[in-house]
Design goal:
alpha/beta; Dehydroquinate synthase-like, alpha domain
Length: 393
């Protein structure tokens, strides 16, 4: 970001508590929110893993009553939100806690709005359709990737439209984010990889975004550096607590970047794929990410060169264009090391879906496409899908 652009900007971040073991501080923060009864929204895996019991023990020690909805889907649908809303209406609560990955946190955000303002889930789809803050929310990530704990976005599967759609509002930003890297240690390698690339894509797309600012650029580059340094280590050894700490910190920074600069084309192209194939969000974004980056590199060469450098690539003997493409090469090497699918051919996508997917992106994802550093037409989008569907040479 050149200061010659003299760009004006706002910057939003919720209150954050970060550090190993910081879940123990939750009780103090709940007293500040005057919580008497809490609704915890999470997924069944965290109940089975004992993480929900650990959280409820912290709540009991503070004399806070709790109810648990642990049926959040891996890729939550609008119907899943309605189910959680009905549960909350029947039980009653004055504070909501979202515990888990982005799915649980996104559902928590919208349920908090529904419990306060009423209406139906579809009423809030789109930009700035939330009339005000919902019930107080505390978001506690157990993965290092989504950044949902600090963002104004909540994304859901619209099964009728066969794509994912978002609720976007500053009123969705949590009252408190509690980021405890120790909670991520139980993630298996596959989830470490998928959530890790989710964080990387947030940082990279935010760095390249039309809405990027000098402040988000600084945070994005540091997030990229942290992820490249720590994701391979966390993938190889889940008990490596310094690597987990670095990934949680990198994910937090990437989430702040996402909240203030926004995502763009990889997310846009991912939404119809995710709705069709129900893959983890990070995997879905990764399936076209590298092709999108190759398309964008010529448009923002200086930023790609800087990314290559923070990724650890040697660029001093390369031309500027070669150095820019080296960033894409480093991203590809990382994807291969952590064994994550990064081509549509990896999932065997039906080529007949390319045209309807491209049309869906153009029709439903203009918010994201307009934030890209290079305009993508429907023809461009089809070409990206085609290249990703091609078998690896």
């Amino acid at each position: 970001m050149e200061f010659g652009q003299l760009k004006s900007f706002q910057f939003t971040v919720p209150q954050v508590v970060f550090g190993n073991g910081c879940l123990a501080q939750l009780g103090t923060k709940l007293r500040e929110l005057r919580a008497k009864k809490v609704l915890v929204l999470t997924d069944p895996g965290l109940t089975q893993a004992g993480v929900v019991d650990r959280l409820r023990a912290v709540l009991r020690n503070e004399g806070v009553e709790s109810e648990v909805f642990d049926r959040v889907e891996k890729e939550p649908s609008l119907e899943n939100v309605a189910e959680a809303h009905a549960f909350g209406l029947a039980r009653g609560a004055d504070v909501l806690i979202g515990l888990g990955g982005g799915s649980s946190m996104d559902v928590t955000k919208l349920v908090a709005v529904l419990l306060k303002h009423g209406g139906k889930t579809r009423d809030y789809l789109g930009i700035e359709k939330v009339p005000g803050r919902g019930l107080p929310t505390v978001l506690i990530p157990t993965t290092a990737g989504t950044g949902s704990e600090v963002s104004r976005y909540a994304i859901f599967d619209d099964r009728a439209a066969q794509t994912k759609l978002g609720v976007v509002s500053p009123y969705l930003v949590a009252d408190l984010a509690v980021v405890d890297p120790e909670l991520t240690v139980t993630m298996p390698p596959q989830i470490t990889a998928s959530t890790g690339v989710d964080a990387l894509i947030h940082a990279v797309e935010g760095y390249l975004a039309a809405n990027a600012t000098p402040l988000t650029d600084l945070l994005a580059l540091e997030a990229i550096r942290l992820i490249f340094e720590n994701l391979p280590k966390a993938f190889a050894d889940g008990d490596n607590l310094p690597a987990r700490y670095g990934m949680s910190y990198g994910s937090l920074l990437a989430g702040i970047v996402l909240n203030n600069a926004g995502a763009n084309a990889s997310h846009a192209l991912a939404y119809p794929i995710g709705s069709k194939y129900h893959l983890p969000h990070g995997v879905t974004c990764m399936l076209t990410f590298l092709e999108v980056m190759e398309c964008f590199a010529p448009a923002v060469v200086p930023k790609f060169v800087r990314m290559a450098q923070v990724m650890g690539a040697r660029t001093e003997n390369l031309s500027r264009r070669e150095a820019a493409l080296q960033a894409v090469s480093e991203m590809r090497k990382l994807a291969e090391y952590i064994e994550i699918p990064h081509r549509l051919s990896d999932i065997g996508m039906d080529r007949d879906l390319i045209e309807p997917f491209a049309k869906s992106v153009v029709a439903n994802q203009q918010r994201l496409l307009k934030n890209a550093p290079r305009k993508l037409t429907e023809k461009d989008i089809r070409a990206i899908y085609e290249r990703s569907c091609a078998k690896k040479p």
